[in-house]
Amino acid sequence: MTANGVDVISAVQRAKLDHRFSLLDVAGKGYLDRTDYAELARQIAGGAQLRFDDPRRQEIVDSLLGLWDILAVHADADGRLSREAWQASVQESVFEPDGFERVMEPVAASVIAGYDGDGDGELDRAEFEAVLMSIRVDAEGAAAAFARLDTRGSGKLSREQLMVALREFLVSDDPDSPGNMLLGSF
Ligand SMILES: [Ca+2]
């Protein structure tokens, strides 16, 4: 990921980062701040079929605000991350060795726990599609993503399959990685 001391990312990685920034910057402000991650957390926690006093709801919120705190190292004096600063923060955290495990696994684990309604440790089609629809992926896109990721044909995605897909989505520079399907086209 480093050449001549300068961090480089591929065109595919940059396209995905651009797409994600645009999805996060719902209001088109041109920057992200803590309220964007709080809103994302509210959406994801709200989409889970959990009672309001269920601790798994708060764990989703806490994990996403924890992610913001990691990314916010490059925020300006007003606590804002421009598109460029946000991309730099992602590169420095998620893309680093062990970065995915350190930065993203806690978020993924809290979301899986919150949406695993039957408690079998995996997400079935309905549980998985509910996650994606909480972040405004449409039903068609969610169904297509499940079909692409359910390589065992079991009708369920294991925690390991979900982590592999999320890692591919976030980090892979292969445009054909199945994990790229997570948030639709980019
Ligand atoms: Ca389940």
Q: Name the average pLDDT.
A: 90
Counting DSSP H or I runs of 4 or more residues, the number of helices is 8
Q: What overall geometry do the principal axes of the alpha carbons give?
A: globular
**Through-space gap between termini:** 21 Å
Rg over alpha carbons: 16 Å
**Which ligands does the model contain, each kind named once?**
calcium ion
According to CATH, what is the topology?
A: Recoverin, domain 1
Assembly status: single chain
Please tell me the CATH architecture by its name: Orthogonal Bundle
Number of domains: 1
Strand content: 5-15%
Helix content: 55-70%
State the secondary-structure class.
mainly alpha
Q: Write the element-wise H/E pattern from the N-terminal end onward.
A: EEHEHHEHHEHHEH
The level 1 CATH classification is: Mainly Alpha
The major beta sheet can be summarized as: 2 strands, antiparallel
What's the CATH superfamily, by name? EF-hand
Poorly predicted parts: 1-6
Task: Tell me the strand order in the biggest sheet.
Answer: 1-2
Q: Would you count the extended β strands for me?
A: 6
General description of the model:
A hairpin with a 2-residue loop joins strand 1 and strand 2 (6-7). The two termini are 21 Å apart. Residues 1-6 have low confidence and may be disordered. 58% of the residues lie in helices and 8% in strands. The strands form 3 sheets. The protein has a two-stranded antiparallel sheet with strand order 1-2. A two-stranded antiparallel ribbon has the order 3-4. It has a two-stranded antiparallel ribbon with strand order 5-6. Helix 3 (55-71) packs antiparallel against helix 5 (99-115). 27% of the residues are buried. The radius of gyration is 16 Å and the shape is globular. It has a single domain, classed as EF-hand (Recoverin, domain 1, Orthogonal Bundle), CATH 1.10.238. With 186 residues, the protein is mostly helical. The structure holds calcium ion. Residues 116, 118, 120, 122-124, 127 line the site of calcium ion.
